[in-house]
Amino acid sequence: MALEWIVVAYAAGAEAMMLLLLTLPGSNPLRHGLLSVTKTLLKPFLAILPFCLLLLLDIFWKYETMPSCKTLNSCSPSENLRHQKSTVKSQRNALLIAAAVAFYWLLFSVTKLVDRVEQLQFQIKKSAKNE
Q1: What is the longest distance spanned by two Cα atoms in the chain?
Q2: 77 φ/ψ angles, rounded to the nearest 5 degrees
Q3: pLDDT score recorded for residue 66
Q4: Which of 3, 13, 86, 90 is least surrounded by CB atoms within 10 angstroms?
Q5: What is the pLDDT of residues 11-37, one digit of tens each?
Q6: How many Å apart are CA 91 and CA 97, to the nearest integer?
Q7: Alpha carbon of 73 to those of 13, 67, 76: distances in Å?
Q8: Cα–Cα distance between 6 and 62 in angstroms, integer?
Q9: What angle do CA 67, 69, 72 make, to 5 degrees?
Q10: pTM for the whole thing?
């Protein structure tokens, strides 16, 4: 199960880096090339969304099937510690899922916005040459 989380972490990291590079001020030559790369990668990164849903269902299943220690003597200290570690890992993984989905949404929105700005700049240059 660790490989799935590594994939989500790398995808979220790549999305964050592209988002950061797209929003840097004053990097027009870099932005133009990165915009075309980002527009190309948005469809493959869309596979992260159902993947995150599957991993979220896995977290939910772990919570539903986790044995509960209702009385103090029903669980040994090692079992109690194992359940606490599992809870912390599940919370960390839920934050990772939320970050991956949020970065994808931000990347999609910013890419669309930057593309529209470049189209408008091109139209302004084209109309300035025609006058």
Answers
A1: 86
A2: -60, -35
A3: 73
A4: 3
A5: 999 999 999 988 888 767 788 888 888
A6: 10
A7: 43, 14, 7
A8: 19
A9: 165
A10: 0.80
